[in-house]
Fold each of these.
Amino acid sequence: MRKVIVTGAGGFIGHHLVNFLKSKGDYVIGVDIKKPEFEATKCDKFVIYDIREKSKLFEDLFIGIDDVWALAADMGGMGFISQNHATIMRNNVTININTLEAARKAKVKRYLYTSSACMYPVNFQTEEDSAPLAEDMAYPANPQHGYGWEKLYTEKLCEYYREEFGLDTRIVRFHNTYGPLGAWRGGREKAPAALSRKVAEAIRDGKDHIDIWGDGRQTRSFCYIDDTIKGLNLLMESGYTKPLNMGRDEMVSINELADTVMKAAGVKLKKVYVDGPQGVRGRNSDNSLCKKILGWAPEIDLETGISKTYEWIKTQVEKNQGAQY
Ligand code: NAD
C-alpha cells in the first residue's frame, strides 16, 4: 500500500483522483481549504488546511509519504483567471513553495505537479487554427498573465528541486479537463460547465437563447476527466520527469462546444454574443510526446463526455431551483 497526499483533494480533479487512488488501494491523505462539494470524500484522512500557511502541522503530514499529488491551486475559468492576477500568483506561488518544501524535508519518494497549457507563449495562440502546442514550444517564455506565469515558475521550481535536492518530480501540463462533480456556477466554472448550466437554465426558464462570451470562434480542446485521471496515473508511474501535455488534440470552437451541449440536451437555442473574457484565440494540445512516453491518448469523445457532464449539471440546476447564484 502506498501512502500518498493529494493537495486540492476537495477540488474537481483532486476528488476524482482520490477515488481512483482509493480504488487502487492507496492510503490517501487529502488536504484542502474545503471538502468536496458534491460527494463525500473517500480519503482515509482529510485535513482542512490553508497551504499558504507554512507550519509544522502541515510539514508533519508529509513524513512517511510515498507520493505527493500537488493539485491545490487558486484557479477557475477565464472569468476568474483573467481578473485576479496578483491574488492568483501570490496564492499559488505560496502554496507550491510550501508543498515542495514539506516534500523535500520529508524526503517523499515521488512528486507530481499539475501545470497548465496557460504556460505556453501567447504568441503561438493568436489564430483560431493555431498549431497544436508541443512541449518544446515553452521557451522563449511568454505565458498567459498571472496564472500562466505562476505555472511556468513552479515548473522551473520543480526542475530545480529535482536537480539540487533530488526530489523525484513529474510535471503535467493539463489542457482543459471537464466532467461531473466540478464547479458549475459562481464564477470559477470553465466553458463546458458554464455552457451546460446556461443551456439547462434556458430550458428551465423557457428562454430561446444562451449568452456566449465573444464571437464563439475562439478554440480549445477538452479532455474528459476519466481520461485525465488515467493519464495522470501513467505519468506518475512512468518515471518521466520533463513537462508533458495532457489533453485531447481535437480543437473545437466555443460555438461547436455550445452545439454539442445543446445536442446533449436535445434543444436548439440561439447564441447571443456578449462581451466577456476569452483568453487566447486558439489552443490545442500536441499529444505526440505523451503518446510516445505513456502510450496514452484520450478515449472518450466530446459528445460522450459532454453528455455525461450535461446530465450531471442539469440535475444540479434542478436541485438548486430558485436559489440565488
Ligand atoms: P479546483 O479549483 O477544482 O481544485 C483546486 C483545489 O485547490 C480547490 O478545491 C481549492 O479549494 C484548493 N485550494 C485553493 N487554495 C488552497 C489553499 N490555499 N490551501 C489548500 N487548498 C487550496 O481545480 P481543478 O480543476 O481540480 O485543478 C487541479 C489542478 O489542475 C490545479 O493545479 C489547476 O491549476 C490544474 N489545471 C486544471 C485544469 C482544468 O481544466 N481543470 C487545466 C489546467 C490546469
Note: The chain has two domains: 3-177+222-246, 183-221+250-281+301-318.
Amino acid sequence: MKNILPSPLQYKNNQLCFDGKTLESIAAKKRTPFYLYSKKILRHYYEYFSKSAAKNEIVSPLVCYALKANSNKEVLSTLKTLGSGADVVSVGELKKALSAGIDPQKIVFSGVAKTEEEIRFALRCGKKGIYSFNVESIEELELINQIARKEKRQARVAFRLNPRVAAKTHKHISTGNKTHKFGLLKEDIHEAVAAKHLWTNTTLVGLSIHIGSQLTEMKATVKAIEELSKLALSLETPLEFLDVGGGLGIDYTAEEKLKLASIDQYMATVSQALEKYYYSKTDHCPRVVFEPGRIIVGKMGVLVSRVVRTKTSDNNHFTIIDAGMNDLIRPALYEAYHEVLPSKSSKKMITTDIVGPICETSDCFGTKRKLPKLTAGEIVVIDNAGAYGQTMASNYNEREIAKEYFV
Ligand code: LLP
C-alpha cells in the first residue's frame, strides 16, 4: 500500500506553492533563509496520529509530543489545543511546554543526564509534579528519590528499558541496543525495584522504550514491545502506563515513499503487539503513551533559501545558496536526504551540487541533483525540514539563526 503523507508543497502553473500561495510571494519581503511551517499540515498529522490510535483500540492513548523535533511556540500551542502532552529532555523544553499551557500531568521527562536543578523544577510543577520521570539509570532514581524527599513530594517514575534491539536506522539515531547509553537493562530494573530505599518518595507508574528515530519498518518495534511486555508482566507492581516511545519515520526519499510504515500500520503494529505480549496475559490494563516527534512536524515545514551564485569547477556545477549546515544540519550529520525544489519548475535540467556558505565540505544539501539552471536571487526550498531543523540550528560562522514563519 502506498503511504501518502500530505505536504504543504505543490506546483501550480509551474510555480511552487506552499499551502496554495506561491513561494515567490511568501518570500518576497523576507530575509532568507527562513523556516516556513503549515499549521494545516501540523494539525493533520497530530489529528491523524491520535485518531489512528483510537481506531486501532489503543488503551487511553496519551500523545506526548517530543519537543526536540520542533519547539516553536506556535507549534506547541497548536498541539496543546489539540490535546497533546509533551516529551521533554531538559528544563528548557519543560519550561516551553508549560508556557504553551501543557498540563504537567501530560509531561514525561526523558534523558540520561537530568540534573538536580531539572529534577527539582519538574517535581515542583503543578500540584503533583510531572506525569513521569523516564528514568535511565539507578543513580538517577536515587537522586530523584532524594530530592523528592527534601521537597516532601512523591515522584512518579517509569523505567526506560533498553530492550537490546537493533533498530534499522542511521547509527547516530539508533538507541535501543545494549551498547547505547540509553535506558536500563532488565536485570538492572529488577535490582532497582527490589531496593526498598530507592522507593520512599518515588512511585513506579510505568515502563518506557524508545529504540530509535526515522524508523521505516516495524520489526525491531515489535521485538521491543515484546521485551517491554515481558518485563511489565514480571513486575509485581501494577503499572499505569506503557510508553512505546517515538521513532516513526517520514518519507524523505522516493524509496521511503514506497516502503515506509504508515501511521495506521504503526498503530496496528503497536496495538497487536501489546495485545499479543501483554493484555492477553493479564487483567491489568495500563494506558499507552506515545512520544512522536518527526511524524507530527517533519512534513509541515520547509527551509526557504535563495541562490547566491552558481559556480563551475572542472566538471562540477555548484548551486550556492544562502542556507547552510548551521540552519539544517541533518545532511551534514547523518548524510540525510532532503529534496531541494526550485520555485519554478522547468523541463530543462542540469546536474548540480547544492551547497551552502559554511566553510566545510559537508555543508552540502545534495550532490548530483537535477535542477533547472538557477541564477542569483532565485528561491529554492529544502523540503521536509519541520523536524530537527530549527531546533538543531547553530550560530556557526557567526550566522543568525533562521526565523520561523507560518503561512
Ligand atoms: N522519545 C525519546 C526518548 C527520544 O529520544 C526521541 C528522539 C523521541 C521520543 C522522538 O523521536 P521521533 O519520533 O522524532 O523519531 N536529530 C535526529 C533525530 C534524533 C532523535 C532523538 N530522539 C534527526 O535529525 O534525524
Note: The pocket of LLP is lined by residues 66, 68-69, 87, 110, 173, 210, 213-214, 245-248, 291-295, 330, 334, 388 (CB under 6 Å).
